[in-house]
Write a structure and sequence with these properties.
The chain is of the alpha+beta class. The chain is 40% helix and 19% strand. The chain has a 5-stranded antiparallel β-sheet with strand order 4-3-12-11-10, sandwiched between helices. α2 packs across α6.
């Protein structure tokens, strides 16, 4: 923002998003009005988005945390976004990031053949347990793909076996995401790093703000390498869960995301590609009254409605 007017040497003033501009005195009322508008516009815009979302949150019977950030303009909204909450299978996103980092560090090899053993098979989401025979072998990178696209629990445990259970949390802490932690292999409570943590958060934990921050780093190509980020986004864009973030979005909308579900927890975090630019969104729900495993589960519907409000908000600004 540049403002010119007759008067003495300029003095710095604080402008939107931490930048500095200069204002000369005396200046006209018109210039002051322009400055005020520039300073208040982002805040007012975020307030409008909050106005659209708040009624949905108030109506929901359960805990909700939301983080939204437009990755081009910087407009953001946070509601309970710093509160650690159960991640459910959303934690598979940082597990993928750690795997790519270890591949870069030559600690693991993506072309290594991993073999499905009888003890690897666990219930829940995925295709390995119901459709693959013991002894099936495939590259580690394929296990990572299955972990993200189909949220495959068995594949997730096979990936964790390669990278080590504590590694993901340690890496996230290095990135400043200290609440994003993996505590156990899926359906393997005996592998918990902390039984107390497991009773409170289950498989893992995160915050809405940290999930959005991780997505922001991936979008910017600042995690591992630009090439790795491009591959990871490719996995996330193929996620087959259409009941949460994607639920009410217009057909053809591209979303790179990872979701999670357990009885009382529904989560989803991803990048929605809008005409005005990519928007990172995370919605975490927990202690939900509705624990049904149905398409119209209240937690899933809420996530879908919030994503639609976010999409429409930024579509209207285009």
């Amino acid at each position: 923002m540049s403002i010119t007017a007759a008067g003495p040497e300029p003095r710095p003033i604080r402008a939107a998003r931490g930048t500095y501009s200069y204002l000369k005195e005396p200046c006209t009322v018109r210039y002051l009005a322009l400055v005020c508008l520039a300073l208040l516009a982002p805040r007012a815009s975020a307030a409008e988005l909050e106005r659209r979302i708040t009624p949905l949150v108030k109506e929901h019977k359960g805990k909700v945390a939301i983080a939204v950030k437009h990755l081009k303009t910087g407009e953001e909204l946070y509601l309970n976004a710093d509160e650690p909450m159960p991640s459910a299978s959303l934690i598979k996103l940082p597990i993928m990031v750690e795997a790519y980092w270890q591949a870069k560090e030559d600690k693991i090899k993506f072309d290594k053949q991993v073999t499905l053993a009888k003890g690897d098979k666990v219930p829940g989401s995925g295709i390995l347990t119901p459709h693959f025979s013991e002894g099936a072998a495939f590259p580690l990178k394929d296990a990572i793909r299955l972990m993200i696209v189909y949220s495959d629990n068995t594949a997730t445990n096979m990936v964790i076996d390669q990278i080590g259970l504590p590694a993901t949390g340690e890496r996230m802490a290095q990135l400043g995401l200290k609440n994003t932690k993996v505590n156990a292999k899926v359906f393997k409570p005996e592998t918990r790093l902390s039984q107390e943590f497991g009773k409170k958060y289950g498989l893992g934990s995160t915050t809405a703000k940290e999930a959005v921050r991780l997505l922001e780093l991936i979008d910017a190509g600042k995690v591992v390498s630009p090439e790795a980020c491009k591959e990871m986004l490719g996995h996330l864009k193929a996620c087959d869960d259409k009941e949460k973030l994607v639920r009410y979005l217009p057909a053809g909308t591209v979303v790179a995301h990872k979701s999670g579900s357990v009885d009382a927890t529904k989560t989803d975090a991803g990048i929605i590609y809008t005409k005005s630019g990519p928007v990172a969104v995370c919605v975490l729900t927990d202690a939900n009254e509705d624990k049904r495993w149905t398409a119209d589960n209240a937690g899933q519907v809420l996530i879908g409605k919030i994503a639609k409000e976010v999409f429409d908000h930024f579509a209207e600004k285009n």
